[in-house]
Amino acid sequence: MPVRKAAQAPPVNPFCVSGVIPGLCLKAGIGPPRSECGVGALMGWADRLWAVSYVSHKKDSGVGTGLYEIDDGFRLTKRPESRVGTYTNRFVHYGSSQLIIGPHVIDAERNVRTVEPLVDVRLCSTMHHLHEPDRMVYMLGMEGEFFEMDVHTLAVRQLADLTKELRSPRPQYIHLKAGYCGLGKVLVAGNDYQEDDFLGRTAGGRLAEWDGRHWTILEEKPFVEVTGRGDFPSRTIFATGWDRASAILKVYTGAEGTCGCWAISAPGAGCW
After folding, report:
1. Angstrom distance (rounded) from CA 137 to CA 130
2. Section 227-239 average pLDDT
3. Which superfamily does CATH assign the domain made up of 127-272 to?
């Protein structure tokens, strides 16, 4: 006898104010400890919109954040697998039909597994693997942790401490923001920027690449994003950052069998 699925409640017309739906607000607890609360990542997957919220600095800096799913009836559900932490990563691993968001791995049936060793890492990026993309990904932490993870077993291995590899002048304040894998390399961006950087005494920002063996620093300026066009024919990678005088867009392309990199700087009123 076939098993009948439970009937889904009909869609609702949510209360809306100027395009804002208060019922979809992601909230944190009042504490203690009390911290900020924000949306770290959004991704559509398995007939839901998934969101992960964050506190300022790992699990000991706040309470009440977690993993959420939103259905097409605007019903918001906080998942029981939720963890408090600081996460901004999201990535669909098509080879295994899984979404990776924060420290969670979600299959096509919306079953959630949590990568416990990464719960207290401030995850900022998940990337394709250079050598075993069908079963592995790279995971990047804001404080310089660089891991590889098996998407089936969830086994994790740390590959590098980027505070050392990228020669951060302030290891305790390194702030990596993004990573991307393409054209046979991994690129990471960081935006550590202090008064000494403004005065020209140090340079904490980074744009760097890894070929699977060696790390190379490309820029010692603050960069906030690096991303690309995946398997599109142009296979182009973009990185955005700034210096004292301008906003910077760096472009790396492997079009037509050649690889090249160039920068476009737009004059600005100052750093931000």
Report:
1. 8
2. 80
3. YVTN repeat-like/Quinoprotein amine dehydrogenase (2.130.10.10)
Instruction: State the CB neighbour count (10 A cutoff) for residue 241.
Output: 26
Helices and strands (DSSP H and E) totals, the chain: 2, 20
**Cβ atoms of 168 and 144 closer than 8 Å:** yes
Q: What is the pTM of this model?
A: 0.89
- DSSP bridge pairs for 4: none
Supply φ then ψ for residue 8, to 5 degrees.
Answer: -85, 140
Residues present in the chain in total: 272
Residues 6+ apart with CB under 8 A from 17: none
Q: What is the pLDDT of residue 5?
A: 45
* 28 residue type, one letter: A
CATH 2.130.10.10 occupies which residues in the chain? 127-272
Beta-carbon contacts of 82 under 8 Å, excluding residues fewer than 6 positions away, are 65, 66, 67, 68
Using DSSP's 3-state secondary structure scheme, residue 197 falls into helix
Please name the residue that has the structure tokens 């089936």: 152
Q: Six-digit token pair at 21? A: 């739906």
Per-residue tokens: 228: 């690309």
**Alpha carbons 149 and 129: distance in angstroms, whole number:** 9
User: pLDDT (tens digit, 9 = 90+) per residue, 245-268?
Assistant: 889 999 888 755 445 566 666 776
Which residues are paired to 252 by β-bridges?
A: 237, 261
d(C-alpha 7, C-alpha 73), whole Å: 13
For residues 48 and 69, the answer to whether their CB atoms sit within 8 Å is yes
Q: What six digits make up the tokens of 267?
A: 């004059």
CB 67 within 8 A of CB 79: yes
